[in-house]
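Posting for a labmate who doesn't have an account.
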Amino acid sequence: MSTKSANLKVALPRCRHCQRYWQPDEGVVASNTYCPFCSVSRRAEAAQRLGLKPLKPADENDFYLLPRALRRTQS
């Protein structure tokens, strides 16, 4: 294999939080998510800081809106 081969630059992605190597599921963008070890703790911390409540099955039929400050604006 030559030293200019594209495969020499291929590597597993690293978690944004703990820097562990991990293999994301198919269709998951590794740079936008965390490894399975960190995702649960990061999600719990974010919910606590943002004051979010978990969705219930009863909310499925009703509209569930985020506060305006948390909504993503479309550009």
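Reply:
Got it, the structure tokens are right above this. The two ends are 45 Å apart (CA to CA).
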